[in-house]
Amino acid sequence: MNHLLEIKDLNVIFHIFGADVQAVRGISLQLNKGETLAIVGESGSGKSVTSKAVMGLIPNPPGEIATGEILFEGRDLVKYSKKQMQKVRGKEISMIFQDPMTALNPTMKIGKQIMEGLIKHQSLSKHDAKKRAIELLQLVGIPNPEKRVDEYPHQFSGGMRQRVVIAIALACNPKILIADEPTTALDVTIQAQILDLMRDLQEKTGTAIILITHDLGVVANLAQRVAVMYGGKIVETGTLDEIFYNPKHPYTWGLLSSMPKLHAKTDKLLAIPGTPPDLSNPPKGCPFAPRCPHAMKVCTEHMPAYTELSATQKAACWLLDERAPKVDPPTTIGVGGES
Amino acid sequence: MTAKSNAEVTKELFVPAYLSDTESEKISGKSVSAWKDALRRFLTNKGAMLSMIILTVIILLALIGPHIFGYDIDNQDVSRANLPPKIEGLTWLPAFSGYENGVDIYKEKNISKNYWFGTDQFGRDLWTRTWKGTQISLIIALIATLADVLIGVVYGGVSGYFGGAVDNALQRILEVIAGIPSLVWIILLILIMQPGLITITIAILATSWLSMARIVRGEMLKLKNQEFVLASRTLGAGDGRIIFKHLIPNSLGMIIINTMFSVPNAIFFEAFLSFIGLGIRQPQASLGSLINDGYQMLQIHPYQTLYPGIIISLLLICFNIMGDGLRDAFDPKLRR
Amino acid sequence: MIRYILKRVGYMIVTFYVVITLTFLAMKMLPGTPFKFANRLSPEQLNQLKHYYGLDQPIPIQYLHYLWNFIHGNLGGSFQYGMQPVTEFLFQRFPISLQLGFESMIFGTVLGIFLGIVSGIYRGRFLDWGTVTLAVVFISIPSFIFAAILQYFFSVQIRIFPVIGWSGPMTHVLPVVSIGVGVMATIARFMRTEMVEVLNQDYIVTAQAKGLSTNAVIFRHAIRNAMIPIVTVIGPLTSAVVTGSLVIENIFAIPGIGSQFVDAIVTNDYPMIMGTTELYAGLFIVTILIVDVLYGVIDPRIRVSGGKSI
Ligand SMILES: Nc1ncnc2c1ncn2[C@@H]1O[C@H](COP(=O)(O)OP(=O)(O)OP(=O)(O)O)[C@@H](O)[C@H]1O
Ligand code: SF4
Ligand SMILES: [Mg+2]
């Protein structure tokens, strides 16, 4: 049980308009040193909320962590005070965001935005922090960093800004980097560059990465393990190979078959008919039941429990019960051969 | 799998369940139309609802108030001048006791009738005059707003819809007009015309449509290239039809919100002009001119300013709160 | 940026020219003026008047005449005060109004920004609710009613502040507060909205994710960004402050151009009305220009891109 990060039975609730939105419902995950874990799932499945919970950044009100533990090196971050959490953020765990166009303060110089964390966590002097900022810009591949530290975000292109965001996140050599859809807002060629950069940096620094994405192509590129989320729950988790070659959950099947081709990167791949469940009033059975082509009566009535399929793979689906009819994964799953 | 759930899960449940389309839709939540949603939000806004009630009461009183005692707006009688407010049954309230500085003025002047808001220096019944004045304020607000909506919507609509050179020209004109403070416009107009109800209305009109024109133009620019408009155009709809059938109905939210804000503006300007002596002339009264009259007496008979002052403040506050409420209702981004 | 400023200055000149022309036309359209009040003037004054307006000439010539006079700072003479030059009055009284305006503006802006920030940070709590409610009330109540209330309680009842006048610091309090609360309320509301909006921005989350303290996030990242757009309300506020000063100067007998203007209107002192109108318009136009340029200077997004984004 020596995980770098272990989430146990996490529940996050947002109280809005008298309704309680159960954005995350009993998630458990582990992350080991230096590995990359991908969390995939369609919009609204609770991926970002999970990562914000780890960062201690659930806006409160309206949100709160109702129950659960987030163990970082054995210590429960949920119990941390605001002050203690500030020492973790940016230093031990940091985060990069989806939209580089809005993730940087438009009226503060790039250099200063990188330096802030350094000054706070490593007590560097202004001068040293600036030197380090220039190094970091160099590291993330920004040409002419001495000059560019003194520029403002709007003088940078989208890809360049995402590099800056990565530089900010890596400034204090964190042990965990959470990347929430780091390439979604970028165009295809830039996406590839940013992914390459992240892989490079991970090799150099040994940082563990939680990669959140819609894009299974990105997952295949970067991750060793995958967790598939649906309706605020993890419906299946396993190693990259297990999820891609031996998926057991119908939602994972749906995800994989809606992926046109492994390396064709497109946003619009989640073409599973229907809409995700209303998390303010979640169904009492399997959240995927209304859209599941294999749904059985039991699915709408009872929540399926996890079935351990191997030491590393488990899935929550009634099809895995011995009483269930045998169903084969669709042949449309477009993974075969490649990769 | 816990033992408990296992007990309930029987073999018969493992049969395919086909959910119909309607059912799957029901599960994924019903869609409330934007208008209904806005209305619901507005109706649950306590401040806006309270304002609406207060406004209704004021409007009703403005309609019936002047007829209660049968006085005219200019019924002068010096024998009953400067009487403080007195309401039978409320005399235990200092404000309605008929006493001033510890003296029962009604007894002193031997007057048996009650004047609910008191009388002014000519002995005119202030209750009657105040509600008459409220009528004036409301009428001006109404006319100014109606015309404001018409001019502003048409100007902005034409500018935004046709775009190009038309838009450019209209925008330059608008920029110049807006470059001059509305007070200056209003005073220039009032100098040319004789002070009075119509002049004030025109003067307020001359400037208040500007913001409406801007907003409607912005909406037009935003809407005119959206799919449903393009679709309608492909089907051969003319400009007029597109503007009135599609664009204006879709900008209605913004138009209503902006109207709600131009009403208090019109009321304020009328009061302001009447207060500095450019508005309604004697013996006519508006809330502004009543406050002005009363203001001369502020140190001796503060009640003469008090009631018109309270009513105009309530009018302005309530309209503004309702405007805020509508804006929040239509623009959920700003709610909470 | 330079090109942008030049363009704005161009608009400004056009607008001002329109104002001058309009005042001229208004003058021409006045019923029976300026001789409507001829009985109040001596024969030489009448002659002077005739000469000033070139009344014996056709209207286009009169117009050029008027422009010529205007460019040379000659706004004519006041009817009320025996044809003394209007400019003299304006020069004498404008500084007082300017001071009143500035003091009100500063009072309102400082308090408003503070309230707006607090309200935005504590959004949804009682403090926020109180500020928002207070702001609506202060925006709604006309300054002259507010002034009457203040005067009645603080000057007539408890006699802390003088009823009227403009001599020592004590005399400034009530007029400045009367005009300033409206400014305060407007700015507080605006600042609150901006603050709420900025606090919802992604870069605030980035700042929090760096591990900065709440104070650092608010002071270094939120407030600065929220405050920049405040500059844009200064234009409309100037206009509101001018409107307010008209009545407030009258109520408190402050010898500024506002009270002079109201006097002029009531006594039909047309040259004075025209001159003051032009001064107000000029003031407003220049304010808008300054605000525009200032906005470009303090917001690096506009500054660097050369004002393209406007
Ligand atoms: N600040 C918030 N206030 C209220 N509800 C929230 C908030 N943040 C998230 N939620 C709710 O939590 C649920 C999960 O949102 P989350 O952002 O985690 O989805 P996601 O999986 O990251 O989706 P996406 O792929 O679109 O980023 C959503 O239904 C959303 O309504
Ligand atoms: S539990 Fe039932 S509804 Fe859910 S995924 Fe499995 S088969 Fe489909
Ligand atoms: Mg997300």
UniProtKB/TrEMBL annotation, chain A:
Which GO molecular function entries does the Swiss-Prot or TrEMBL record give? Answer: ATP binding
User: Where in the cell?
Assistant: Cell membrane
CDD domains, sorted: ABC_NikE_OppD_transporters
- Name the major location: membrane
ABC transporter domain location:
7-256
- Ion transport among keywords: no
Q: Where is the signal peptide?
A: none
UniProt keywords (A-Z) are: ATP-binding, Cell membrane, Membrane, Nucleotide-binding, Transport
User: What SMART domains does this protein map onto?
Assistant: AAA
User: In what way does this protein cross or attach to the membrane?
Assistant: Peripheral membrane protein
PANTHER family linked: DIPEPTIDE TRANSPORT ATP-BINDING PROTEIN DPPD (PTHR43297:SF2), OLIGOPEPTIDE TRANSPORT ATP-BINDING PROTEIN APPD (PTHR43297)
Give the UniProt family note.
Belongs to the ABC transporter superfamily.
Q: What is this protein called?
A: ABC transporter ATP-binding protein
Automatic annotation (TrEMBL), chain B:
Q: According to its UniProt record, where is this protein located?
A: Cell membrane
Pfam families noted in UniProt:
BPD_transp_1 (PF00528), OppC_N (PF12911)
TM spans (from-to): 48-69, 136-161, 173-192, 198-216, 255-280, 306-326
Cite the InterPro entries for this sequence. Answer: BP-dependent_transpt_permease, MetI-like, MetI-like_sf, OppC_N
What residue stretches are annotated with the ABC transmembrane type-1 domain?
134-323
The UniProt entry, under SUPFAM superfamilies, shows: MetI-like (SSF161098)
Q: Which UniProt keywords apply?
A: Cell membrane, Membrane, Peptide transport, Protein transport, Transmembrane, Transmembrane helix, Transport
Q: NCBIfam families per the record?
A: Opp3C
- Protein name as catalogued: Oligopeptide ABC transporter permease
| Species, as recorded | Sporolactobacillus shoreicorticis
Q: Which gene encodes it?
A: opp3C
TrEMBL record, chain C:
Instruction: Spell out the subcellular localization from the entry.
Output: Cell membrane
Its keywords, alphabetically, are: Cell membrane, Membrane, Transmembrane, Transmembrane helix, Transport
Pfam families, sorted = BPD_transp_1, BPD_transp_1_N
Q: How does it sit in the membrane?
A: Multi-pass membrane protein
Give the transmembrane ranges.
9-27, 104-122, 129-153, 173-191, 226-248, 279-298
**Per the database record, which ranges form the ABC transmembrane type-1 domain?**
94-295
Domain of life according to the entry: Bacteria
What does the sequence similarity comment in the record state about its family? Belongs to the binding-protein-dependent transport system permease family.
What is the protein name stated in its UniProt record? ABC transporter permease
Q: What is the originating organism of this protein?
A: Sporolactobacillus shoreicorticis
